[in-house]
Structure formats: structure tokens, C-alpha cells
Amino acid sequence: MKLVVQEFLTLDGVSQGPGSPDEDPSDGFTRGGWFVPHLDEEFERLATAWLGEADAFLFGRRTYENFARDWPKMTDHPGAATLNGLPKYVASHSLTRADWNPTTILSGDIPAEVAELKRQPGRELQIHGSARLAQSLLAAGLVDTLRLAIAPVVVGQGRRLFPDGGAPAGLRLVSHRTTPGGLSVHVFESTGLPAYGTYGADRAAEPTS
Known about the structure:
Largest sheet: 8 strands, mixed
Structural class: alpha/beta
Strand content: 15-25%
Number of helices: 5
Number of strands: 8
Radius of gyration: 18 Å
Distance between the termini: 52 Å
Strand order of the largest sheet: 4-3-2-5-1-6-8-7
Shape: globular
Order of helices and strands: EHEHHEEHEHEEE
């Protein structure tokens, strides 16, 4: 399976608390819910189509607990059958039980266990949210695809998906689109380490006549 990370971001790179003010107030974050005003039907259709590519899901503990609380009740949502029915994995060293079936807790060497999951047959192993987990797996070179939905807002605080001091990563843009609500949706494939270069006179554009 390919490991696919799907994240909602602000223009300043924050991924914390997109869905509501009380979704994730950890570390004093008070500006949650920034993604909601920009949701529209076009993005809902796109997100549902992405769910249709999944054969399993991988979560960090906090995101898993939020999804496990909400999605079993959302039976009329077009993506509910997929999220509720497919295998789910949660990376956690503190959880002792996970009742959103079928769920398996990963509590050992998480990168090694995820690498083993990727060797199983299937299409996509999707991470939704779970930014800390996504960061660690990106650093381990395990992420194949990034799907980023960027909202036209700067919140000025909160955890960023790509923090200072994070692992470098090379990416290739494979598609992009905008939605009526102002979301900018970018899909990237991982290419390993970044390429670096030097801009100089020999790289400058030749004058035209």
C-alpha cells in the first residue's frame, strides 16, 4: 500500500484544530475551526473520492479518539461506510483498547510497523490529520503522497505540519486545484531528499530580441 497523508493547513502552515474551536486546544491554542468557513460541496466531493482510494487508515491517538467518537454516528455521510468499515490502525503507547472496530493498536517501533503495513497488498493506507505521526513518518521516508488542503487564513499560532528543525523532504507537485470556498488543494509525491542549487549569472534568462 502507498502511505498517503491528508492534511488541512493554514497559509502559515498550522494544522492544529481545523474543525472546531474545541477540537484541539492543547498548548493554549484558541483559534480552532479555521477550516470550516471555507468548506464547500466541491471539496466534500473531492474528499469523498479520496476516501474511495483507501484500503486502510492510520491515526495518531488524538485524531483516532475524535474520529472514533464522531464517525460511528455519521451514518448518512457518504464516507461513513468507508471509514467505519475498513481496517484502522492507531499509533499509541498509551491506548490499551480501541473500540472503533476493526482497529489495531500499534505500540512498538511505529516506523517499522508502518513499513510492514505498507508491504501488505492494497491501494492506500491513509493518514487523516495526526500531524505528529505524519511528521515522524515523513522523516522516516515512509510517506509516498501528501494531499494538502490549504485555507486562505493566517492564524498566527498553533502546531505546524512542517516545524522549524523538521526533516527535509523533496516533493513533486502532481496536481493542484482551487475550490469555490477558496481552498487551494495540492497533491505532492515524495522524491526523497531535496535537491539544492546555486543561482548565478549562468542560470539567468537569456535576453530576448
